[in-house]
Amino acid sequence: MVAPGSGDREAGDGRAATGTPGEGSDPGVGDAGGGDGVPRVARLVVVALLVLLLVPGLVGFDAWPLTGWRLFSASRHATVTRWVVEATDATGDTRVVSLEELPLRDRHAEWQMAELPGAPARQREAVCRALAGEVHGVEPTAVELTIARDHARLVERGGTWSTVHDLEPFHSCPVGDDRGGDR
């Protein structure tokens, strides 16, 4: 005996309604995907997408636009420390010169500046003088260049967020003197 309301109707071919395809079933759903009603093409698409997303993440290369692992894996805090160059003119006014203002070859100078804390004084001076020559092209009134760590942090004041910069000078050199600072 079958409980009332549990699908005790009989199919037209003499089978009980058990979920197997028969008369009146959806023609797009059936055994094409392995018996559970999912088409084989859908399974292949899902497997292909999983491979396209997981392999780059596990191997360690970025196959954008499929992956962007580094965009989400970088830790973000309220304080960010970066290396910057600061130009000082004869009156003592200072300005942080963006590396984007320098020629293309110097756009990644922050990498070389990050290696300076453990470097000998000769190397620090060489990097500073090389940057001083490029900064002189952008800021012709500069007389001194300072390589500094910029500890930038987000601060909320009166409902608006602003960035506060705290520069920590690391190494300075003259700009445009006759010892090779001006190229």
Please tell me about this protein's structure:
The chain has 183 residues and is an alpha+beta fold. The chain contains 4 helices and 4 strands. A 4-stranded antiparallel sheet has the order 2-1-3-4. The chain is elongated, with a radius of gyration of 33 Å. The termini are far apart.
Please state the structural category: alpha+beta
The number of strands is 4
Helix content: 25-40%
**Which residue ranges are poorly predicted, with pLDDT under 50 across at least 5 consecutive positions?**
29-33, 178-183
Shape: elongated
Overall average pLDDT:
78
- Write the element-wise H/E pattern from the N-terminal end onward: HHEEHHEE
Widest β-sheet, arrangement of strands: 2-1-3-4
SS summary, helix count = 4
Distance separating the two termini: 98 Å
Largest sheet: 4 strands, antiparallel
If you compute it from the alpha carbons, what radius of gyration comes out, rounded to the nearest whole angstrom? 33 Å
SS strand fraction: 25-35%
